Amino acid sequence: MPYTNVEARKQLLDALGEAADSLAQALAFLGAAYEHLDDQQADRLEEQLFRPVQHAYGRAKRTHAEFASRHGLPEREFKTPSPGAPSTGVKELIENAVDAIGHAEAGLVALQDSLMPIEFGDADLRTGLTEVRRLIDGISQRARAFVRTYGR
């Protein structure tokens, strides 16, 4: 069954929205981990992990809103998720964040590999997707390094 442009663009927005939701979940986990750390470790977490994910999330939301606006599609309301139980430890919170980032990245890769951004998107959408992926590139490795050196 062939796509209409509107259906394909809605599917693009849904996929981008799901990736943004995963990044929001990662931010919630990282924010909760931050609360468990001393000032020095918290500053490291913010610089190495939280800030790049926050920028990626903002870029994903902006790309979503701008693409929807350009094509007369409804914008999505993004909500802040809960990080879960407050008793969760720093290591587990960071691992949960890494999983959420991996989910976002996998969704963005699948979206880009589908060629839908080329067929039904536009240059600004493709630039936004690429930028989000660039911003989260390497976060998993930095998170593992952070966990390895946490508490030292």
Description:
By secondary structure, this protein is mainly alpha-helical. The protein has a single domain, classed as Ferritin. Helix content is 76%, strand content 0%. It contains six helices and no strands. It has helices at 5-35, 39-70, 90-113, 116-119, 123-136, 139-149. The longest helix is centred in the middle third of the chain and has 32 residues, at 39-70. The chain is elongated and about 55 Å long. The N and C termini lie far apart (57 Å).
> How many separate helices?
6
Count the domains.
1
User: What composes the largest sheet?
Assistant: none
Q: What is the N-to-C order of secondary-structure elements (H for helix, E for strand)?
A: HHHHHH
Helical content class: over 70%
Can you name the CATH architecture?
Up-down Bundle
Our measurement of the CA-to-CA distance between the termini, rounded to an integer number of angstroms, reads 57 Å
Number of strands: 0
- Which structural class do you get from the secondary structure elements? mainly alpha
Radius of gyration (CA) equals 17 Å
Shape: elongated
Strand fraction: under 5%
The CATH class? Mainly Alpha
Mean pLDDT: 92
Query: Could you name the CATH topology?
Result: Ferritin
CATH superfamily: Ferritin, core subunit, four-helix bundle
Low-confidence stretches: none
